[in-house]
């Protein structure tokens, strides 16, 4: 009878060990699932940040293209203004020559009329 009792104790001890093992496995699994969840959240945040970065880069590129267009337009306007300025200078010189000629003519006329 005594031998059988010891067997039951050993079996009870084994069941106890198994239960403890089951608990530790459950604990490890829970830990792993939690850390996995944390990693997924971190990854999601990173992906969102990356897509936001791409969006900002795209916006910056569009802005640069718009600025480039504005600069080219300004350059074109400046070139046209330079041409207009040159023409105005020629006209001013021509007017000055005409004024000098007319004052010479006036001098000649006044000498003739004396």
Write the layout of secondary structure elements.
Blueprint: H1 2-113
Family: Belongs to the BORCS7 family.
GO cellular component, one term: BORC complex
Protein name: BLOC-1-related complex subunit 7
Brief characterization of the structure:
This protein is mainly α and 114 residues long.
Walk me through what this model shows.
It contains one helix and no strands. The protein has two domains: 9-50; 53-113. The protein is mainly α and 114 residues long. The radius of gyration is 49 Å and the shape is rod-shaped. The mean pLDDT is 87. 98% of the residues lie in helices and 0% in strands.
Structural features:
2 domains; 114 residues; 0% strand; single chain; mainly alpha; 98% helix
What is the approximate shape? rod-shaped
Sheet having the most strands: none
Strand content: under 5%
End-to-end separation in angstroms reads 167 Å
**Would you tell me the overall average pLDDT?**
87
Low-confidence stretches: none
Radius of gyration: 49 Å
Residues in helix, %: over 70%
Domain unit count: 2
Family: Belongs to the BORCS7 family.
Keywords: Lysosome, Membrane
Subcellular location: Lysosome membrane
Main location: membrane
């Amino acid at each position: 009878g005594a031998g059988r009792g010891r067997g039951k104790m050993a079996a009870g001890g084994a069941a106890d060990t198994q239960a403890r093992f089951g608990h530790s496995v459950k604990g490890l699994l829970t830990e792993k699932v939690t850390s996995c969840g944390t990693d997924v959240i971190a990854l999601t945040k990173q992906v969102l940040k990356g897509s936001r970065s791409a969006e900002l880069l795209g916006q910056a590129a569009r802005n640069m293209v718009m600025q480039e267009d504005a600069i080219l337009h300004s350059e074109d306007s400046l070139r046209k203004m330079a041409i207009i300025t040159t023409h105005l200078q020629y006209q001013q010189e021509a007017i000055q020559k005409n004024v000098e000629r007319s004052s010479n003519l006036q001098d000649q006329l006044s000498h003739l009329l004396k």
